[in-house]
Amino acid sequence: MANWTNTYNTKRTTLSENVRVVREECAKAQSESARRFDGAISDVESELFQKTEVLQKSIDNINAQKQTIDDNLREEYRKRFNVEKSALDAEVEKLEGKKNKESNDLGVAESDYLAKQRNLQEDKRLSENSERSVKTLDENILKAQTQLDDLGRADYYKSNEEDILTKKKYVEDQKDNIRRQKKDLTDLERKLKILEFWKSAFSDSGIKSMLIDSAIPHMNECVTEELERVAPGMFTVSFDTLSETKSGNIRDKFCIHITNNLKGSTGHKKLSGGEKRIIDLCCMTALRSLAEHLYNKRFCHIFYDEILDSLDDSCKAEFCANAKRQSTSGCNVTLITHDMPEDVDPDRTFPF
């Protein structure tokens, strides 16, 4: 029994020692694992920090490249815009010069007309004075003839021969003066007819009316085609040189007749904001077509500034399609808008 007890105690001591050794080895292994884990985490954090720095540098480089590209695009657009603006300014200056020349010519024509009118009034006054002078001379001739009849007696004639001859000469001079004044009166009447003719020619019913009348058919045709394309059947627009006053009288005045076929109303004031914009766009297209037709030239640049405001979706789509057709026919179209519709298919976009 004692031997078994000793053996048991020995084994127990051995097992206890083994457990202690195993526990120490486990503690060492756990400490080593913790150390290795902390080292791995530190390495991962260091590598993550390095990759984060590399990524941030890449982002900074990309942002710098993007800013450079944006700056280059803006600079290129600004240069092209300045070039086109300079060309447009030159064209506008040329048109302004032409307009000023025509205005000066019109001012000269008006000045000539006013001068001729003043001359006409002066000639008319001289004609009236000549008529009064002729009437006075006729009266003087009658008096002189009466006096000659009274002086027909021989005795009186002999005593007043010199006075009679003087009066006869005066009468002949007065007759010559009457003939000259009648000739001047005839010339003044001829000049009056000429001035009346040019007065009528330069009036609103003269040459200006003829020029406008010759342009109206082309404008009516263009505005009708444009309305049928943008808003088929909704409106009827026509240009005319005759307008009706409130009293019902007809006078020569350029006017635009607008009829809303859906509502049955007439006039520009009764249209909504979008309807007015549609009518204005179609009239502008007709005027541009008339200018190209008259001068045999085409518009190379067209600018639309916030033109899509007040238009519904269908009209926006038709306008964008029309602008695209213009851009593909050799005309540069620039559209400035705060709202980019889906129907717009621009070649280039410059956001601001």
What does this structure look like?
The chain has 352 residues and is mainly alpha-helical. It has helices at residues 2-150, 154-159, 161-201, 207-230, 273-295, 313-327, and strands at residues 235-244, 250-260, 301-305, 332-336. The strands form 2 sheets. Strands 1-2 form a two-stranded antiparallel sheet. A two-stranded parallel ribbon has the order 3-4. Helix 6 (313-327) links the parallel strand 3 (301-305) and strand 4 (332-336). Helix 1 (2-150) runs antiparallel to helix 3 (161-201) and helix 4 (207-230) packs across helix 5 (273-295). The relative contact order is 0.04. The mean pLDDT is 77.
Write the layout of secondary structure elements.
Blueprint: H1 2-150, H2 154-159, H3 161-201, H4 207-230, E1 235-244, E2 250-260, H5 273-295, E3 301-305, H6 313-327, E4 332-336
Parallel strand pairs: 3-4
Antiparallel strand pairs: 1-2
Helix pairs in contact: 1-3, 4-5
Write down the Rg: 52 Å
Distance separating the two termini: 104 Å
Mean pLDDT: 77
Q: Low-confidence stretches at least 5 residues in length (pLDDT < 50)?
A: none
Derived from helix and strand composition plus strand pairing, the structural class reads mainly alpha
Portion of residues within helices: over 70%
Identify the overall geometry.
rod-shaped
Q: Short description, anyone?
A:
This protein has 352 residues and is mainly alpha-helical.
Notable characteristics:
mainly alpha, single chain, two-stranded parallel ribbon, two-stranded antiparallel sheet, 352 residues, GMP Synthetase, Chain A, domain 3
